[in-house]
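Worked problem 6 (solution included).
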Amino acid sequence: MGLVLLTLLLLLWSPVYSHLRAVAVLLRVQSSEAHGFFADTGIHPIRTEEANFQSGARQLPTRLYLPTDLEHAPAMVIVHGVHHLGYNEPRLVRFAKAMSGAGMVVATPELPEIAGYEIKPVSIDEIAASANDLAQRMHTPCVGVLGLSFAGGLALEAASDPATSQHICYVVAIGAHDDMERVMKFFATDKAEYPNGSLQAMPSHEYGALVAIYAHPEDYFSAQDVPAAREAIRLQLFEQVPRAKDIAARMSPAGQATMQMLFSQNHSAAKATLLQNLEKHHAESDAVSPASQLYRIHVPVMLLHGAGDNVIPPSETLWLAKDIPAIDLRAVLISPAISHVELGRGATYMDKARLVHFIEQMLGEARSAPYNSVDMPRIAGAATLLH
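Solution. The predicted structure is:
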């Protein structure tokens, strides 16, 4: 009888412990200063290492987060979203530290185009190269990849292509896109389209239109104004508005008038132009849309999206869930507990519980993925990590 009771207690403790660890991850994502029973349960000390990896002709930086007291740990690449701080963006750093503290080797590569507000096919290859690099460093056949925002869609595209998916064990996409042209249409119309044909009115984030204009300033400005317009929009995206206005002052009167509307977040005219030009840029959008490639994916996928996300609407995750083979889809959660790629406000306890369960599933997928296990003593030491 004692053995039976002990067995039952162990069976009950395992899921309780794994969910407590997920709670700790969530608390540490919220605040790097989080401590106490719930924030410290299942959390390991970590260290960081700076390194580089090769992608084609480029050598790119990456940061490694390594738990220091484990014999074995799964490995994951976490790819930053569209933000000029790249892998130094504070929310990403907190997330990487929280995941590594939960017992994972984490690499956060710096992808120049994504950090520069450009969604281009080269980033797909660089995500794959980062996974290859981490697998080689850790002496393991494959690693997980977690992509934030547009990087989530690009990570899914990398995992769908036999040429770039060899070292990817599974993918977690948070706030990801399925079809870039449909997202651009959302930026233009403030209406999100769902797989069932319904439309949801949702004011898009003002930065979405700016990213679209930045990609093709020639659609909005005269040829002579294009260089200055592109630089002014880049500075605005980089939150350097005074410098952006100085650049805009050198433009023609018509160009200055358009830029003034952008500075004041009056995007109505620009959105009309964006809508008119969607078809012209169809091939470019298709090249960075996982939608048509997902039938080829052969690894487990988990999808998480904020219910109120106005950068990439949550409808895109429902499109992803429709396009990914059912056999590979492990979990789908659209949650009021997050916004775009950060924690939201006003969520209920049940919303938070569902998010904790998703994190628990994600950590479990990392540990159960075939071949995704790092022998930590084997890779210990900076000399190995910085080869």
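Discussion: Residues 2-177+297-385 form a domain with the Rossmann fold fold (CATH 3.40.50.1820).
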